[in-house]
């Protein structure tokens, strides 16, 4: 048994195989699709990724909610009662209140279990950027890192995880308040595709506009080449919103550059509610973001 347990959320969009490999515990976030409540389980047990995005394409509306204090208490209490400590790796505080909630839950449970340790780290990331962060920290634990060593590594790693992505449907950015209605309409008519990234504070920032889908996908690879710390030997994650062919295009480009440790996953319903179908996102360790 590990002396401490690492938790993260389903917003990390890690496939079940990677969760099992890294021995992570994942708390599902919630979403409401056309009035029906769902949990964002990594294995898609309540709704598949494809079915979810088909509903969005058909005009369904989706709202999301963060992990509740009760969810934290239910998940953390058995671990603490069993004599283990907890390292919690949270969804970006720049995008959600989940990190703040985890800190509140940690304080409450620390009083109940004064002999145990609970540390919460803000990933400043979303989707498989959060997933890559959690995966690499978990691999450190598997390599023998102590609680303090893993915690220090997580704090050093968080600012170094890079995330770049592009969306296909600008209207989802408009609904999320990240693009004006006029800009979304004009961009759609002109075939403009924004290229965005996650900044140092964990916010989504539009960085450039290119014309055409293929150019936006090429831009992700360009930024990887410019900032990746170890372009060929580092771990690289890529996620997509039900557009496997576009994802494969980027993966082929990366493999041509010598990338070997490359993992692909789906953008889950919680992140997908804001980015929409057709999103492709790329994540790696580098700098600057």
Any overview of this molecule?
There is one protein chain. This protein has eleven helices and 13 strands. It has helices spanning 16-22, 49-57, 69-81, 98-112, 127-142, 147-157, 170-175, 181-190, 213-227, 244-256, 269-275; strands at 4-9, 25-27, 30-33, 36-39, 62-65, 85-90, 118-122, 161-166, 192-198, 204-211, 236-240, 262-266, 280-285. Strands 10-9-8-13-11-12 form a six-stranded mixed beta sheet, with helices on both faces. Strands 2-1-6-7 form a four-stranded parallel beta sheet, with helices on both faces. The protein is globular. GO terms for molecular function: lipid binding. This is DegV family protein.
Reconstruct the topology from this structure.
Layout: E1 4-9, H1 16-22, E2 25-27, E3 30-33, E4 36-39, H2 49-57, E5 62-65, H3 69-81, E6 85-90, H4 98-112, E7 118-122, H5 127-142, H6 147-157, E8 161-166, H7 170-175, H8 181-190, E9 192-198, E10 204-211, H9 213-227, E11 236-240, H10 244-256, E12 262-266, H11 269-275, E13 280-285
Parallel strand pairs: 1-2, 1-6, 6-7, 11-12
Antiparallel strand pairs: 3-4, 3-5, 8-9, 8-13, 9-10, 11-13
Helix pairs in contact: 3-4, 5-6, 9-10
């Amino acid at each position: 048994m590990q002396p401490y347990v690492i938790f993260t959320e389903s917003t990390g969009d890690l496939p079940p195989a990677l969760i099992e490999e890294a021995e992570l515990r994942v708390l599902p976030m919630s979403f409401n699709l056309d009035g029906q409540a769902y949990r964002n389980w990594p294995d898609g047990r309540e709704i598949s990724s494809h079915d979810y995005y088909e509903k969005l394409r058909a005009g369904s509306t989706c709202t999301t909610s963060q992990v509740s204090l009760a969810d934290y208490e239910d998940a953390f209490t058995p671990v603490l009662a069993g004599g283990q400590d907890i390292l919690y790796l949270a969804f970006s505080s720049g995008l959600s209140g989940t990190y703040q909630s985890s800190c509140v839950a940690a304080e409450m449970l620390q009083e109940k279990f004064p002999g145990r340790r609970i540390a919460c780290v803000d990933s400043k990331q979303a989707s498989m950027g959060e997933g890559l962060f959690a995966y690499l920290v978990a691999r450190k634990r598997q390599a023998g890192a102590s609680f303090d060593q893993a915690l220090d590594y997580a704090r050093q790693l968080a600012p170094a995880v890079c995330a770049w992505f592009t969306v296909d449907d600008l209207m989802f950015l408009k609904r999320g308040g990240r693009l004006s209605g006029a800009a979304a309409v004009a961009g759609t008519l002109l075939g403009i595709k924004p290229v965005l990234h996650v900044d140092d504070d964990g916010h989504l920032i539009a960085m450039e506009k290119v014309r055409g889908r293929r150019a936006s996908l090429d831009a992700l690879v360009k930024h990887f080449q410019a900032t990746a710390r170890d372009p060929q030997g580092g771990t690289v994650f890529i996620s997509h919103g039900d557009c496997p062919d576009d994802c494969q295009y980027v993966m082929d480009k990366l493999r041509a550059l010598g990338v070997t440790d490359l993992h692909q996953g789906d953008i889950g319903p919680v992140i997908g509610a804001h980015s929409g179908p057709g999103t492709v996102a790329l994540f790696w360790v580098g700098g600057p973001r």
